[in-house]
Write a structure and sequence with these properties.
- Pfam families: Ni_hydr_CYTB.
- The protein has about 180 residues and is mainly alpha-helical.
- The longest helix is centred in the middle third of the chain and has 31 residues.
- It is built from seven helices and two strands.
- α3 runs antiparallel to α4, α4 packs antiparallel against α5 and α4 runs antiparallel to α6.
- It is elongated, with a radius of gyration of 18 Å.
- Strands 1-2 form a two-stranded antiparallel sheet.
Length: about 180
Amino acid sequence: MINDNSERYGSITRFFHWVMAVLVLQQFFKFADRINEGEHWLGDTFGPWHVSIGAVILILAVVRLLWALKQKPQRPINPGFDGVIAKIAHRLMYFSMLIMPFLGALYIHGKGYPVKVFGYELIGQPADEVPWALALGEWHSPFAFLLIFLVIAHIAGALYHHFIQKDTVLKRMIG
């Protein structure tokens, strides 16, 4: 089943969810740069891919959002207070995934570096630091912390529904 229905999410929605989940979790390894002044194998291994994977997440988030809007009439509904909380959390996650790549690019550019995605220069190196870009780009990190919180809450909510509520919320996305 490709499309969503009132019982469960379709294969395309699940594909987007799980691919993006892996990519977003991989992005969190960038926090390893804060360990041992950036000299940590996690940061060394995953750090160089951070900007490129962020660009992929941005593209997938846009496509996923368009797909979700197309599927909205037949998607499963979470009634009650849990559903309201889930809707707010999902919107904040989408917003974070959409805004963070731009904030990250502003931060890099503001620091005086070119913005490269998979080796291709998207924004050239400025002659000097760009204070306004750096000031806006500083918001990348707070949004990263927000996204981590939301991901943890998302996982906790799914486990709560599965083990405590014993409903089908988690099963809708697993298959």
